[in-house]
Design brief:
The chain is an all-beta fold and 102 residues long. The protein has no helices and 9 strands. The mean pLDDT is 95. Keywords: Ribonucleoprotein, Ribosomal protein, RNA-binding, rRNA-binding.
């Protein structure tokens, strides 16, 4: 059985005991969080409009981490003008503990 959840404006396909990386969630490591379910899949799939009533996905926060550095470099030729800025995205690693459906 799998589910499609929504977190941070994005959708993720998850299954039980799966470890996934999401956008940063405000929860400490070891806490349990739940996500809204958009679809339950398996033998008898259920599609929500927009959410599946009574369905929940629980997950445990494993750790908070950061992605690799991305360099944004802009240069205007022959103008002696250039700009360089770096960015690192914050992520949260979660382990899906259970998927319950109505």
């Amino acid at each position: 059985m799998f589910a499609v959840i929504k977190s941070g404006g994005k959708q993720y396909r998850v299954a039980a005991d799966e470890v996934i990386t999401l956008g940063k969630i405000e929860a400490a490591a070891g806490e349990t969080v739940s996500f809204p379910v958009l679809m339950l899949g398996g033998d008898a799939p259920k599609v929500g409009a927009p959410l599946v009533e009574g369905a929940t996905v629980s997950a445990e926060v494993v750790e908070h981490t950061r992605g690799g550095k991305i360099i944004a470099f802009k240069k205007r030729r022959r103008q002696n003008s250039r700009r360089k800025i770096g960015h690192r995205q914050d992520f949260t690693v979660v382990r899906i503990t259970s998927i319950t459906g109505a």
